[in-house]
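Reopening: C-alpha coordinates for the zinc ion complex, inputs below.
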Amino acid sequence: MGVNANRLTRTGQIAPVASLLPGSLAFEGERRRPGGSAARVVRSIDIMARGSGRFVISLDFELHWGVRDHSTVEQYRENLLGVREAIPAMLDLFRRYETRATWATVGMLYAESKQQLLEWLPSRKPRYADRALSPYEAIEREVGDDETADPFHFAPSLIRKIAATPGQELGTHTFSHFYCLEAGQTAEDFEADLRAAQRASAGFHEPPRSIVFPRNQLNPAYLSVLDRCGIVAMRGNGEHWAYEARPYAEESPARRAMRLLDAYAPIVSTTRSIHRSPGKGPTDVPASVFFRPFNKRLARAEPVRLLRIETAMTRAAREGGLFHLWWHPHNFGANLRENLANLGRILEHGRALDRRYGFASSTMAEAAN
Ligand SMILES: [Zn+2]
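Re-run output (same inputs, fresh job):
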Protein backbone atom coordinates (compact mmCIF):
# COMPACT_ATOMS: atom_id res chain seq x y z
CA MET A 1 0.00 0.00 0.00
CA GLY A 2 1.27 3.47 -0.83
CA VAL A 3 2.22 5.79 1.94
CA ASN A 4 -0.30 8.35 0.74
CA ALA A 5 -3.05 5.98 1.79
CA ASN A 6 -2.00 6.47 5.43
CA ARG A 7 -3.89 9.65 5.73
CA LEU A 8 -7.16 7.81 5.27
CA THR A 9 -6.53 6.01 8.51
CA ARG A 10 -5.52 9.17 10.28
CA THR A 11 -8.29 11.50 9.17
CA GLY A 12 -11.20 9.09 8.64
CA GLN A 13 -14.01 8.85 11.18
CA ILE A 14 -13.03 5.33 12.08
CA ALA A 15 -9.75 6.34 13.67
CA PRO A 16 -11.27 7.71 16.93
CA VAL A 17 -13.14 4.41 17.41
CA ALA A 18 -9.86 2.56 17.09
CA SER A 19 -8.28 4.76 19.69
CA LEU A 20 -11.05 3.84 22.18
CA LEU A 21 -10.28 0.16 21.95
CA PRO A 22 -7.52 -1.34 24.06
CA GLY A 23 -4.63 -2.27 21.80
CA SER A 24 -4.97 -6.01 22.28
CA LEU A 25 -8.68 -5.92 21.38
CA ALA A 26 -8.19 -3.70 18.38
CA PHE A 27 -5.87 -6.18 16.74
CA GLU A 28 -6.71 -9.52 18.26
CA GLY A 29 -10.45 -9.05 18.68
CA GLU A 30 -11.21 -10.99 15.56
CA ARG A 31 -9.69 -14.09 17.08
CA ARG A 32 -11.10 -13.59 20.55
CA ARG A 33 -14.67 -12.70 19.64
CA PRO A 34 -15.51 -14.20 16.29
CA GLY A 35 -18.86 -13.41 14.72
CA GLY A 36 -19.99 -10.52 16.93
CA SER A 37 -20.73 -7.06 15.55
CA ALA A 38 -17.88 -5.63 17.59
CA ALA A 39 -15.59 -8.08 15.86
CA ARG A 40 -16.72 -6.81 12.47
CA VAL A 41 -15.95 -3.21 13.44
CA VAL A 42 -12.58 -4.25 14.76
CA ARG A 43 -11.81 -6.16 11.58
CA SER A 44 -12.49 -3.15 9.36
CA ILE A 45 -10.30 -0.92 11.50
CA ASP A 46 -7.59 -3.53 11.44
CA ILE A 47 -7.59 -3.69 7.65
CA MET A 48 -7.46 0.07 7.33
CA ALA A 49 -4.69 0.50 9.86
CA ARG A 50 -2.39 -2.20 8.57
CA GLY A 51 0.24 -1.91 5.90
CA SER A 52 0.86 1.80 5.94
CA GLY A 53 3.87 2.54 8.17
CA ARG A 54 7.42 1.94 6.99
CA PHE A 55 10.53 0.94 8.92
CA VAL A 56 13.65 1.78 6.91
CA ILE A 57 17.27 1.11 7.87
CA SER A 58 20.21 2.53 5.93
CA LEU A 59 23.91 2.00 6.52
CA ASP A 60 26.69 4.25 5.24
CA PHE A 61 29.35 1.68 4.32
CA GLU A 62 32.62 3.48 3.74
CA LEU A 63 35.49 2.12 5.90
CA HIS A 64 38.42 4.56 5.91
CA TRP A 65 37.14 6.53 2.86
CA GLY A 66 34.48 8.14 5.05
CA VAL A 67 36.73 9.31 7.87
CA ARG A 68 40.14 9.79 6.24
CA ASP A 69 40.13 13.61 6.54
CA HIS A 70 39.92 13.45 10.34
CA SER A 71 41.32 10.05 11.40
CA THR A 72 44.26 8.03 10.19
CA VAL A 73 43.92 4.27 9.80
CA GLU A 74 45.98 3.86 12.98
CA GLN A 75 43.72 6.16 14.99
CA TYR A 76 40.55 4.34 13.93
CA ARG A 77 42.03 0.87 13.49
CA GLU A 78 39.88 -1.02 16.03
CA ASN A 79 36.61 0.23 14.54
CA LEU A 80 37.69 -0.31 10.93
CA LEU A 81 38.89 -3.87 11.55
CA GLY A 82 35.82 -4.53 13.68
CA VAL A 83 33.64 -4.01 10.59
CA ARG A 84 34.85 -7.41 9.31
CA GLU A 85 33.04 -9.06 12.21
CA ALA A 86 30.22 -6.51 12.57
CA ILE A 87 28.79 -6.81 9.05
CA PRO A 88 28.26 -10.62 9.06
CA ALA A 89 26.78 -10.33 12.57
CA MET A 90 24.41 -7.55 11.47
CA LEU A 91 23.38 -9.61 8.44
CA ASP A 92 22.60 -12.54 10.77
CA LEU A 93 20.32 -10.28 12.82
CA PHE A 94 18.62 -8.90 9.70
CA ARG A 95 17.99 -12.47 8.56
CA ARG A 96 16.71 -13.58 11.96
CA TYR A 97 14.26 -10.67 12.25
CA GLU A 98 13.41 -10.61 8.52
CA THR A 99 14.57 -7.02 8.31
CA ARG A 100 15.41 -5.27 5.06
CA ALA A 101 18.15 -2.65 4.82
CA THR A 102 19.89 -0.38 2.33
CA TRP A 103 23.69 -0.46 2.34
CA ALA A 104 24.84 2.82 0.78
CA THR A 105 28.35 1.80 -0.20
CA VAL A 106 31.37 3.86 -1.29
CA GLY A 107 32.26 2.80 -4.86
CA MET A 108 36.00 2.54 -4.16
CA LEU A 109 35.33 -0.35 -1.75
CA TYR A 110 34.22 -2.61 -4.65
CA ALA A 111 37.73 -2.76 -6.17
CA GLU A 112 39.49 -6.14 -6.08
CA SER A 113 42.90 -4.46 -6.37
CA LYS A 114 44.62 -1.10 -6.40
CA GLN A 115 45.11 -1.47 -10.14
CA GLN A 116 41.37 -1.93 -10.66
CA LEU A 117 40.64 1.05 -8.43
CA LEU A 118 42.94 3.22 -10.56
CA GLU A 119 41.17 2.02 -13.72
CA TRP A 120 37.79 3.09 -12.33
CA LEU A 121 38.75 6.68 -11.40
CA PRO A 122 36.38 9.27 -12.89
CA SER A 123 37.49 11.46 -15.78
CA ARG A 124 36.99 14.63 -13.74
CA LYS A 125 37.64 14.98 -10.05
CA PRO A 126 36.46 17.51 -7.47
CA ARG A 127 38.88 20.30 -6.64
CA TYR A 128 37.82 20.99 -3.08
CA ALA A 129 39.06 24.25 -1.58
CA ASP A 130 39.97 22.12 1.43
CA ARG A 131 42.36 19.69 -0.27
CA ALA A 132 42.25 17.25 2.64
CA LEU A 133 38.74 16.26 1.51
CA SER A 134 39.90 14.72 -1.77
CA PRO A 135 40.96 11.06 -1.57
CA TYR A 136 42.62 11.05 -4.98
CA GLU A 137 46.05 12.34 -4.07
CA ALA A 138 46.25 9.87 -1.20
CA ILE A 139 45.66 6.69 -3.25
CA GLU A 140 49.29 6.21 -4.28
CA ARG A 141 50.53 6.85 -0.77
CA GLU A 142 47.88 5.30 1.50
CA VAL A 143 46.28 2.38 -0.32
CA GLY A 144 47.61 -1.18 -0.34
CA ASP A 145 47.43 -3.80 -3.09
CA ASP A 146 44.11 -5.47 -2.29
CA GLU A 147 41.60 -6.43 0.44
CA THR A 148 43.98 -8.91 2.10
CA ALA A 149 46.84 -6.44 2.28
CA ASP A 150 44.63 -3.45 3.07
CA PRO A 151 41.28 -4.23 4.77
CA PHE A 152 40.72 -0.50 5.36
CA HIS A 153 40.18 0.58 1.74
CA PHE A 154 38.79 -2.52 -0.02
CA ALA A 155 35.74 -4.66 0.78
CA PRO A 156 34.55 -6.78 -2.17
CA SER A 157 34.18 -9.87 0.04
CA LEU A 158 31.89 -7.99 2.46
CA ILE A 159 29.87 -6.52 -0.42
CA ARG A 160 29.31 -10.04 -1.77
CA LYS A 161 28.06 -11.17 1.67
CA ILE A 162 25.57 -8.28 1.75
CA ALA A 163 24.40 -8.99 -1.80
CA ALA A 164 23.84 -12.67 -0.89
CA THR A 165 21.60 -11.87 2.09
CA PRO A 166 17.84 -11.72 1.40
CA GLY A 167 16.18 -8.31 1.57
CA GLN A 168 19.40 -6.27 1.41
CA GLU A 169 19.73 -3.43 -1.11
CA LEU A 170 23.12 -2.13 -2.23
CA GLY A 171 22.82 1.61 -2.82
CA THR A 172 25.54 4.19 -3.29
CA HIS A 173 27.40 6.48 -0.93
CA THR A 174 29.06 7.94 -4.08
CA PHE A 175 32.28 6.61 -5.59
CA SER A 176 34.76 8.72 -3.62
CA HIS A 177 32.73 9.85 -0.57
CA PHE A 178 31.89 13.01 -2.55
CA TYR A 179 30.95 16.21 -0.65
CA CYS A 180 28.12 17.95 -2.52
CA LEU A 181 28.12 21.17 -0.48
CA GLU A 182 31.86 21.83 -0.18
CA ALA A 183 33.54 24.65 -2.14
CA GLY A 184 35.47 23.66 -5.26
CA GLN A 185 33.30 20.86 -6.71
CA THR A 186 30.64 21.04 -9.44
CA ALA A 187 27.56 19.16 -10.66
CA GLU A 188 29.67 17.78 -13.53
CA ASP A 189 32.22 16.40 -11.04
CA PHE A 190 29.37 14.83 -9.08
CA GLU A 191 27.91 13.15 -12.18
CA ALA A 192 31.35 11.79 -13.15
CA ASP A 193 31.67 10.42 -9.61
CA LEU A 194 28.27 8.67 -9.75
CA ARG A 195 29.12 7.15 -13.15
CA ALA A 196 32.30 5.75 -11.61
CA ALA A 197 30.19 4.28 -8.78
CA GLN A 198 27.97 2.57 -11.37
CA ARG A 199 31.05 1.12 -13.11
CA ALA A 200 32.43 -0.14 -9.81
CA SER A 201 29.26 -1.99 -8.80
CA ALA A 202 28.49 -3.43 -12.25
CA GLY A 203 30.06 -6.83 -11.52
CA PHE A 204 28.12 -7.16 -8.25
CA HIS A 205 24.54 -6.00 -8.72
CA GLU A 206 22.11 -3.88 -10.73
CA PRO A 207 22.94 -0.15 -10.87
CA PRO A 208 22.31 1.48 -7.48
CA ARG A 209 18.86 3.04 -7.06
CA SER A 210 19.30 4.67 -3.66
CA ILE A 211 21.79 7.25 -2.46
CA VAL A 212 23.00 8.48 0.90
CA PHE A 213 24.98 11.71 0.66
CA PRO A 214 28.35 11.75 2.45
CA ARG A 215 28.08 13.90 5.58
CA ASN A 216 24.39 14.18 4.63
CA GLN A 217 25.32 17.01 2.22
CA LEU A 218 22.19 17.00 0.09
CA ASN A 219 22.58 19.68 -2.61
CA PRO A 220 19.16 20.52 -4.14
CA ALA A 221 20.89 21.81 -7.29
CA TYR A 222 22.10 18.27 -8.06
CA LEU A 223 18.73 16.50 -8.13
CA SER A 224 18.61 16.33 -11.94
CA VAL A 225 21.99 14.54 -11.93
CA LEU A 226 20.43 11.87 -9.70
CA ASP A 227 17.49 11.48 -12.11
CA ARG A 228 19.90 11.00 -15.01
CA CYS A 229 21.83 8.36 -13.05
CA GLY A 230 18.74 6.26 -12.27
CA ILE A 231 18.61 7.06 -8.56
CA VAL A 232 15.02 6.77 -7.27
CA ALA A 233 15.51 7.22 -3.50
CA MET A 234 17.65 9.53 -1.39
CA ARG A 235 18.01 9.98 2.35
CA GLY A 236 17.12 13.58 3.20
CA ASN A 237 17.74 15.24 6.55
CA GLY A 238 15.32 16.24 9.25
CA GLU A 239 13.90 19.75 8.89
CA HIS A 240 15.13 20.83 12.33
CA TRP A 241 18.12 23.25 12.30
CA ALA A 242 20.30 20.72 14.09
CA TYR A 243 19.91 18.27 11.18
CA GLU A 244 19.83 20.50 8.06
CA ALA A 245 22.49 19.86 5.41
CA ARG A 246 25.56 22.09 5.91
CA PRO A 247 29.16 22.27 4.69
CA TYR A 248 31.49 20.78 7.28
CA ALA A 249 32.93 24.17 8.28
CA GLU A 250 29.47 25.32 9.34
CA GLU A 251 28.98 22.48 11.81
CA SER A 252 28.74 23.95 15.30
CA PRO A 253 29.04 22.65 18.86
CA ALA A 254 25.44 23.77 19.39
CA ARG A 255 24.19 21.56 16.56
CA ARG A 256 26.20 18.59 17.85
CA ALA A 257 24.99 19.12 21.40
CA MET A 258 21.38 19.34 20.26
CA ARG A 259 21.70 16.08 18.30
CA LEU A 260 23.27 14.35 21.30
CA LEU A 261 20.50 15.53 23.64
CA ASP A 262 17.90 14.53 21.09
CA ALA A 263 19.20 10.95 21.22
CA TYR A 264 18.06 10.68 24.84
CA ALA A 265 15.06 12.99 25.11
CA PRO A 266 12.31 13.42 22.52
CA ILE A 267 13.18 16.95 21.38
CA VAL A 268 12.77 16.67 17.64
CA SER A 269 9.88 14.71 16.12
CA THR A 270 11.16 11.62 14.31
CA THR A 271 8.06 10.44 12.44
CA ARG A 272 8.64 11.31 8.80
CA SER A 273 6.69 11.21 5.60
CA ILE A 274 8.01 10.20 2.22
CA HIS A 275 8.22 13.09 -0.26
CA ARG A 276 7.67 12.37 -3.93
CA SER A 277 8.13 15.06 -6.56
CA PRO A 278 8.10 13.30 -9.94
CA GLY A 279 10.56 14.73 -12.46
CA LYS A 280 12.31 16.76 -9.78
CA GLY A 281 14.75 14.31 -8.35
CA PRO A 282 14.47 11.07 -6.38
CA THR A 283 11.90 10.40 -3.69
CA ASP A 284 13.07 11.68 -0.33
CA VAL A 285 13.04 8.97 2.34
CA PRO A 286 14.27 11.21 5.16
CA ALA A 287 16.29 10.10 8.16
CA SER A 288 14.64 9.88 11.58
CA VAL A 289 17.40 8.90 13.99
CA PHE A 290 21.14 8.18 13.92
CA PHE A 291 21.68 4.89 15.77
CA ARG A 292 24.53 5.95 18.04
CA PRO A 293 27.09 3.36 19.03
CA PHE A 294 27.23 2.01 22.57
CA ASN A 295 29.11 4.47 24.76
CA LYS A 296 30.75 3.16 27.93
CA ARG A 297 30.74 6.56 29.61
CA LEU A 298 26.99 6.87 29.04
CA ALA A 299 26.27 3.17 29.69
CA ARG A 300 23.72 3.92 32.39
CA ALA A 301 21.75 6.07 29.96
CA GLU A 302 21.61 3.36 27.27
CA PRO A 303 18.11 2.16 28.29
CA VAL A 304 16.87 5.74 27.97
CA ARG A 305 18.32 6.07 24.47
CA LEU A 306 16.84 2.75 23.34
CA LEU A 307 13.47 3.57 24.82
CA ARG A 308 13.55 6.90 22.94
CA ILE A 309 13.99 4.95 19.68
CA GLU A 310 11.36 2.33 20.50
CA THR A 311 8.80 4.95 21.48
CA ALA A 312 9.47 6.84 18.25
CA MET A 313 9.07 3.64 16.23
CA THR A 314 5.77 2.84 17.93
CA ARG A 315 4.50 6.30 17.20
CA ALA A 316 5.44 6.11 13.52
CA ALA A 317 3.82 2.66 13.25
CA ARG A 318 0.59 3.89 14.85
CA GLU A 319 0.47 6.99 12.68
CA GLY A 320 1.29 5.09 9.49
CA GLY A 321 4.43 7.19 9.01
CA LEU A 322 8.06 6.52 8.18
CA PHE A 323 10.75 5.74 10.73
CA HIS A 324 14.24 5.72 9.20
CA LEU A 325 17.17 4.59 11.35
CA TRP A 326 20.75 4.93 10.08
CA TRP A 327 24.35 4.40 11.12
CA HIS A 328 27.75 3.25 9.81
CA PRO A 329 29.02 -0.34 10.11
CA HIS A 330 32.20 1.09 11.68
CA ASN A 331 30.09 2.46 14.56
CA PHE A 332 29.68 -1.21 15.54
CA GLY A 333 33.40 -1.92 15.06
CA ALA A 334 34.07 -1.50 18.80
CA ASN A 335 31.85 -2.84 21.62
CA LEU A 336 30.28 -5.21 19.11
CA ARG A 337 28.48 -7.35 21.70
CA GLU A 338 26.67 -4.37 23.24
CA ASN A 339 25.85 -2.84 19.85
CA LEU A 340 24.41 -6.12 18.54
CA ALA A 341 22.31 -6.55 21.68
CA ASN A 342 20.91 -3.04 21.16
CA LEU A 343 20.21 -3.70 17.49
CA GLY A 344 18.52 -7.02 18.27
CA ARG A 345 16.21 -5.27 20.69
CA ILE A 346 15.27 -2.63 18.09
CA LEU A 347 14.69 -5.20 15.35
CA GLU A 348 12.55 -7.32 17.65
CA HIS A 349 10.46 -4.24 18.42
CA GLY A 350 10.16 -3.56 14.68
CA ARG A 351 8.86 -7.09 14.11
CA ALA A 352 6.30 -6.71 16.89
CA LEU A 353 5.09 -3.44 15.39
CA ASP A 354 4.86 -5.08 11.98
CA ARG A 355 2.63 -7.84 13.39
CA ARG A 356 0.46 -5.33 15.18
CA TYR A 357 0.30 -2.35 12.84
CA GLY A 358 1.75 -3.54 9.54
CA PHE A 359 4.95 -1.57 10.01
CA ALA A 360 6.69 -2.90 6.94
CA SER A 361 10.46 -3.26 6.92
CA SER A 362 11.54 -1.73 3.59
CA THR A 363 14.68 -0.79 1.73
CA MET A 364 14.94 2.85 0.67
CA ALA A 365 14.07 2.01 -2.94
CA GLU A 366 11.01 0.03 -1.83
CA ALA A 367 9.86 2.88 0.41
CA ALA A 368 10.20 5.25 -2.55
CA ASN A 369 7.93 3.16 -4.77
ZN1 LIG B 1 29.93 8.70 4.85
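Residues 78 and 334 are 6 Å apart (CA to CA). The beta strands are 54-61, 101-105, 168-172, 210-211, 233-234, 283-284, 289-290, 322-327, 360-362. Marking as resolved unless the reporter disagrees.
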